[in-house]
Amino acid sequence: MINKLVIIGVGLIGGSLALALREAGAVKEIVGLGRSRENLEAARTLGIVDRIETDMASAVKDADVVVLAVPVAAMQPTLAQLATCLSPHTIVTDVGSTKRDVIAYAQQHLPDHLSRFIPGHPIAGAEKSGAAAAFADLFQGRNVVVTPLPENDALAVSRITAMWQTCGAIVTTMPAQKHDEIFAAVSHLPHLLAFALVEDIAFRANAKELFSYAAGGFRDFTRIAGSHPEMWRDICLANRDALIREVDTYQAQLDRLRDMLEQSDGKSLEIVFGHARTARAEWLAGKPDSQ
Ligand SMILES: NC(=O)C1=CN([C@@H]2O[C@H](COP(=O)(O)OP(=O)(O)OC[C@H]3O[C@@H](n4cnc5c(N)ncnc54)[C@H](O)[C@@H]3O)[C@@H](O)[C@H]2O)C=CC1
Ligand SMILES: O=C(O)C(=O)Cc1ccc(O)cc1
Fold first, then answer.
1. Where would a tag sit more exposed on the chain, N or C end, judged by fewer CB atoms within 10 A?
2. Domains plus CATH for the chain?
3. What count of Cα atoms within 13 Å lies in the side-chain half-sphere of residue 147?
4. What b-and-e string marks burial along 258-287, b requiring 16 or more CB atoms within 10 Å of the CB?
């Protein structure tokens, strides 16, 4: 049971966590803090938070758990502010999509609180944002990756693990470096590609005509280009070294396919498409559901 939970950034992820914990009866009081008054008011009206605060010190006073659910570049100023008013017993965790940068900010601003700063990343979400997009089931059956620090208190790690398990999530742990490399490949690269494809089509002279004929394949491939630009700017920059390596690898794959086209090498194209189709089917078959 969490007596006082503070969510900083009550958007899709912070709001969904609040709803899931409330639905599970695992929290007594939820306080919301954030940048946009309008979004916070919506969060209160929707029953996501019990009350909203504008002052960090009064928000986090005597909190058991503080969850940082702001875009990753906003983690630094948020941690700097938090450092001035955090109670020693409060456990702090984050939901950022990148982990090395957030950990570096925590090391910089909370050097004496690292035993209770537990880095985390729920692998669940959507292209929607804001409190109005939040829903309690978002984390059911989804993975949450925790990247513990050597300084972490074992009890604090188990409390954050239990918090996510209460939301129906499956918690795994790994080093932050490995986390950032994995998500560069399977999350950050696909988002970059989706944005790039839509950008490429949208600014052609005949864009309107092209879009008018785009069908389900285009919609599926580009769904994530509907994601929040500020959030994805921050993620791509925070993980730019790993993401650049993935862009280069993908570029090499495109060059390979381009050569096959130039050579009219249908046999090789079919082999690549076949491998990809089988690999995708095997991946989907191993997942608990099809998201
Ligand atoms: N959207 C997704 O699918 C996923 C996002 N994440 C991570 O979760 C975090 C939050 O993302 P979402 O909930 O999707 O975004 P969101 O845009 O729905 O919510 C972010 C909230 O933070 C507030 N905010 C922004 N800058 C702030 C600042 N400087 N100070 C205080 N509040 C501020 C915004 O007003 C908004 O309410 C990000 O770090 C993101 O990388 C993690 C997993 C999935
Ligand atoms: O919309 C989708 O399919 C996503 O990929 C959601 C998502 C976005 C960011 C994350 O760090 C994790 C999951």
1. N
2. 2-174 (3.40.50.720), 178-286 (1.10.3660.10)
3. 23
4. eebeeeeeeeeeeeeeeeeeeeeeeeeeee
Residue 43 to residues 8, 34, 120, 133, 186: CA-CA distances in angstroms? 12, 11, 23, 10, 31
| Test site for ligand 2: of 224, 233, 235, 290, most ligand atoms within 8 A of the Cβ | 224
Ligand 1, atom 29, lies closest to the CA of 74
Instruction: Report the distance separating Cα 138 and Cα 239, nearest Å.
Output: 25
Please state, as a whole number, how many other Cβ atoms lie within 10 Å of the Cβ of residue 68: 26
Total residue length of the chain: 291
ipTM of the complex, rounded to two decimals: 0.98
Distance 6 CA to ligand 1 centre (A): 14
| Nearest residue to 131 via CA among 234, 22, 8, 225 | 8
